[in-house]
Each structure stands twice: as C-alpha cells, then as structure tokens.
Amino acid sequence: MNKNIHYYFSLIHFQINNLDIHLVLPQTWQAIDLYHAIAHDRESLGKWLPWAYNMKSSADEAKFIKTIQANMVQERMIVLTILVNGEPCGMIDLHNLITSQKGEIGYWLFSKYQGRGIMTKSVREVCKYAFSELNLKYVDLIVAVKNGKSARVAQNADFKLMGIKDNLIHNHSMAGKIETVK
User: Fold this and answer.
1) pTM to 2 decimals?
2) Is-contact 153 119, C-beta < 8 A?
3) Number of H helices and number of E strands within the chain?
4) Could you write out the DSSP letters of every residue in 36-64?
C-alpha cells in the first residue's frame, strides 16, 4: 500500500476557482502539515489564539487531534480539518454545543490560503450543517475587535454584531456574540 495515499471522510466539499476544498474529520496523518502551518504563522495566530504558542511539534498536534476525536465522540464539539487540494491547512469547529440550541464557531487557516474566500465559505457551510443537521437555533462567532481578517469573515458570512466584551484574550476587546440566526 502506498503510504502517501490518505483516506478521509469529507463532510463538506466545495470549490473556489482552481481550489478543491474538503472539510474532513481530523486524523493524525494531518498533524505534520497542520503543525508546519501553525509554526509558519505562530506569531499571527498566537496574537488571537493563545494555543498556537503551545504547539511545539507535530507530535503535539497529533496529540491534540486525538483529544479532538475523543471530544467529538462525546458530542462536545465538531472539528473539521480544512484540506485545500488535499493539503491540511487549517481547522474549523463548532464548540460549546448545547443540543438543539446553540454552538460557537472557531477557525484558523494557513496564511498561504487566506484572502481567497475559503474561510468565509467554510463558515457558511458549517453553519448550514449546524442548522440543518444539528438543529441549532443560532451560532456564535467571537472575534477580536482588532482582528480585521476574522471580522471580515464574520461579516461576509452574514453574522450580526450583538455586542462587545473587553479584554477576553491578551487584553484585546472582543466583538462578542456575533451570531447568525437560522
């Protein structure tokens, strides 16, 4: 068997221009590529997502993926790896799930693929899934006020600003409870 062939379950699939995007269940074979993306973007990711500083190796990422898998089995969250043309390059998740009520969306994407609409489309598709398959009533998206890229994703995905909370992450004010309603 060829070790370079990876099999995955694709929950969501779409294309943007010449990019083939799959949102897939996380698997440990993705750890090396995901770690390299995190290491490359550590400073910019860490500014908004403090966990990026704790990811020191692909083994750390593989351990994280195993933790994600266990949490998904217990229905605490849904996490998907973003594959662009087969390359693991980010993640998107629904966490803080309350059955048939709400969830909170989170995401990150390797800078190599930012600015192409991948994350906006991914957020829209995960929200569709949340409403149609999980029967959620709303989805929250919390964004740092100064994180312009993430705020644009929220706006482009038709989220509504519901308020601002001060000093949630690294003393940054957060645009709190940006939510989309079914």
Assistant:
1) 0.88
2) yes
3) 5, 8
4) HHHHHTHHHHHHH-GGGGG--SHHHHHHH
**pLDDT, tens digit only, all 182 positions of the chain:** 445 667 677 789 999 999 999 999 999 999 999 999 999 999 999 988 888 999 999 999 999 999 999 988 888 899 999 999 999 999 999 999 998 899 999 999 999 999 999 999 999 999 999 999 999 998 999 888 788 899 899 999 999 888 777 665 544 444 444 455 54
Cα–Cα distances in angstroms (integers) from residue 181 to residues 15, 81, 107, 136, in the given order: 25, 24, 19, 9
The residues, any chain, with a CB within 8 Å of residue 70's CB and separated by 6 or more, are: none
Residue with tokens 């994350």: 119
| Alpha-carbon span 91 to 123, nearest angstrom | 11
Between CA 179 and CA 99 the distance in angstroms is: 17
Please check whether residue 130 is in contact with residue 141, taking contact to mean a CB–CB distance below 8 angstroms: no
Residues 6+ apart with CB under 8 A from 63: none
